[in-house]
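Exercise: predict the structure of this protein bound to zinc ion.
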Amino acid sequence: MKARLLLVFIVIVSTAILARNSLSSAHLVVPVVTTRAGTPVLTRQQLSAAALHPLGQDTKLARPITTSQVSGAQPYLIALCRFADSTNVTPHAKSWYQSLFGSQYPGLDHYWQEVSYNAINLSGSAVAGWYNLPYPRAYYYPTDGSPTKTVAALQDCASAADADVFFPSFRGVLIMFNDTNNLCESGSMFLDKDGQNIAYRVAFLGTDCQSHQVIAHEMGHTLGLPHSSGPYNDTYDSQWDVMSTGGDCDPNFTSSYGCLAAHTIGYHLDRLGWIPGVRKYVASPGSHSTITLERLAQPQTSYYLMAEIPIGGAAIRFYTLEARRFVGYDSRMPGEAVIIHSVDTSREVDLNSRVAQVVDSDNNGDPNDAGAIWVPGETFSDLANGITVHIDSATATGFVVTINNEPQTTATPTPLGPPPPIITLSSVWATDGQGQMQSTFNPGDAIILYGLVVNPTPNALLVHYTWSIVGPCGSIFDSADDIGTNSGTSSFGQGGSIPFDACGGIYTFTMGVSYNGRTSSKSTTFTLINASVTATATMTQTTAPDLRYALNLPFVLKN
Ligand SMILES: [Zn+2]
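Solution:
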């Protein structure tokens, strides 16, 4: 379970409240929120890079993956194989798979042509089967904890199909079982057939993996793509990428192919060589540019398809920008917006790695909501690295953005101890909805979080603000904003309500203000009483029935 949030937060200033709190000497300003801060998430991302896969099998494979350009026809053999103990069970006719992989919408050939800008297609692919395997399901996929026999499954299915198939004419072999195998796996394996021992792209797909979305995801791995995700510890949380959980799962969807795959992200398209060099804008250090980003899916103009912003001049860390609009396989995206990913290629260990991670400014555990959806008028700021991205306007099929990349070029000599903050917080406090300072709250109560901010300079400055509330069951609020802050003393408040299911106990509200790399913060506590949930309640993590995971096998086999 993720941190619960206070909803509908606004930045306000109230002279009445200040008067009640005897802070009448405060000089008030009404902050105009014109920007949204990029949450400084790099530390968090570096930590999550080491995070385990939900099933804890990520870290065993250490072989680095190299992705090379993929172009032209990609013939896959789709081999239909029945376990020996269920040879009378045939989930779909051969013709169902033929149209699933076909070139008519939403066939996977059609899908990959759209995603790759026609760089690849599945010409030459074929469906073979159904064939019967010599052993029952439990032989290949034991339920007693002993290792799966994936190699045997490939060899036995291939042998059953051998009379009908000349294997070297295919690049990949996708095995479709007639029952669940409790895994959706893909990678590459050697197979010695028809006189040639060749490393094929392979996938093993039980009936619970046989949806348009999951097959496209596994095929993406076979093409060399890793996962992407939000900046948290969940591989399958980003709806912006088929290589996370992107897809259209509308229950009213009429296709018989289950969830439809969404597009993959700009970084992945670029890895596979599908973004021409002239269609990628690189915002080199020191650059200031206004460019137009054309939508990733079904582009209509010759503007840039993506932008890349090196962070601090490093080659392995950069942001990517891409425009997503409701069209084609992106028709059911969470929004029409510029999406920003933070890419760190040093995160890549294998294809389970999440190299690109969505920048989610509200840091609320959901990379598909407003915090990740950058729309005209908003500004992403990575102040530490001198990077800002302003979304200027929308075009018919994309967005105009202004990118500044001004990293600090010279390191200043380190003084004795950190310099004092320029902008300081002199006090923080919490009030009820009427502005009365309170030390106890009930679940559901309105709450306003205040801080008294001192700007000793004669100028209004853009100050980075953070707010957090941590209680006995974890964080219930975490937010950041850049706010223009006038000279003098100002009061800034954020209002919302305590979640009804918040745990009882003591909460710590911390506010921070940062300017020019220097931070001042203050905390206060309040007590949540009359809560129906206590801190002793066990936090349970729901494991979604997502069965994709990796095997620890001597070949690269990833989900
Ligand atoms: Zn996967």
